[in-house]
Amino acid sequence: MDAEATSDSLTQVPGTGRAVPEAEPELVRRWRSEGGELVELLSQVRERLGGVAAFRVGPAPTVLVTDPGAVQHVLARHPDRYVKRSHRARLLIGDGVLSATGAAWKSQRRLLQSQFTGPGMRRYEHRITEAARTTAERWEGYARTGQTFDVGREMRRFALDAIWRSLTGHPLDDGTERELEAVAGVATALPTLPADVTDARDAVAADLARIDAVARQAVEAARGGVAGPDGPGLLHVLTDAAAERPEYTDRLIRDEMVTLLVAGHETTATTLTWLYLLLDRHPAAREQALATGGEGSEQRRQAVQALVHETLRLYPSAWILPRHAPEDDTLAGYTVEAGTDILVCPYLTHRDPELWPDPEHFAPERFTAPGGRPAHPGAYFPFGIGPRACLGLQFALRESTVLLEHLLPAHTLAFSATPAKTLFGITVRPDGPTRATSVRPRT
What we know:
By secondary structure, the protein is of the alpha+beta class. The protein has one domain (3-439): CATH 1.10.630.10. Helix content is 51%, strand content 10%. It has helices spanning 3-6, 25-34, 38-49, 68-77, 90-93, 102-113, 119-145, 151-168, 174-189, 197-203, 205-223, 234-242, 250-281, 283-290, 298-314, 346-349, 393-407; strands at 18-19, 52-56, 61-65, 149-150, 321-324, 329-331, 334-336, 341-344, 412-415, 421-424, 428-431, 435-439. A 4-stranded mixed sheet has the order 2-3-8-5. A 3-stranded mixed sheet has the order 1-7-6. It is globular. Mean pLDDT is 91; it is low at 1-11.
């Protein structure tokens, strides 16, 4: 079924549909009394009412969107009718491109977009490869000594090194890595911070000060023309822009830098950690990928990318995408009134059995076999779709693939324990340490 057939958004007249089906108040009351996760409530709402459904946790309804056609309508066809109001990470990323709106967002995105597509991406290939080689050398040491290491920390270290090289032209040093642990600290704390902005900022003030100090030093170096061994990086693009565009103040450059740090390493690291946990349960998937084509072949690369895509299906980079309807609209035949909050949920769309047979099963072949995945663009969107889709999509896929091409042939992991729970914050991440040792694969 094609995209046009599953979405009548081109012919719908705003405000002319029927009422969105709404969950019974008892469902929400029971969820609250049990102290459940938001994802549990959303899952029950979708299961009972379908891909466009409403529920109330306050005086006004919130509409959950998981149907592919409705997803495309909200995110891709009519982003002007479903807008971002404020990003959950604004305390950390300020007015960076992830949280910016309106004309400011368009201008900021236009500046950065060329850096993450085509020729722009080729500038960072070498830097990504060097970060992967550094990680591979470290893992060789772990394998020789039998040292136990935390996989999640290793993946954060690799992804932070890759984005730091791309920002500054310098490899990540130990001191900078220690200071930038504050980025993950603030990101992890965000869902539990006080609602009051001042109180929230006070709660993480020390970590924010560490981040600001690192950013200030890096920006001053870039503005002074100091390039790293790999040449100028993304920070130089931002400081050069400031010479002609007064909106690029020191604060906005800091915000864009921190935005790129957050988006450029936390999501990739989480995806790679989940991938290794999934391979621990499904070791045949690793063998199948490595048996495809030869080393360095396009077939092997596609097989490795399929591992990443299937991991992102189960654990998308952004598990929920909030939007707000400033005007009336008709969505999949339903009336959405002005002022309604919208929750688009990739996590639930990706686990819909009507779209993905046996959706809880890890099956990378979905992304290599003909007809293995739904054709509708709204059925798989781990980085979003439409004009606000993640800028760093190609960067994230490239760094994940390059690292796996280095590590998968040389190492299998034996976990001493694996997390039993999943945390749904800004990202979907394992709840607990992921300690493992490297075991040489049998040849």
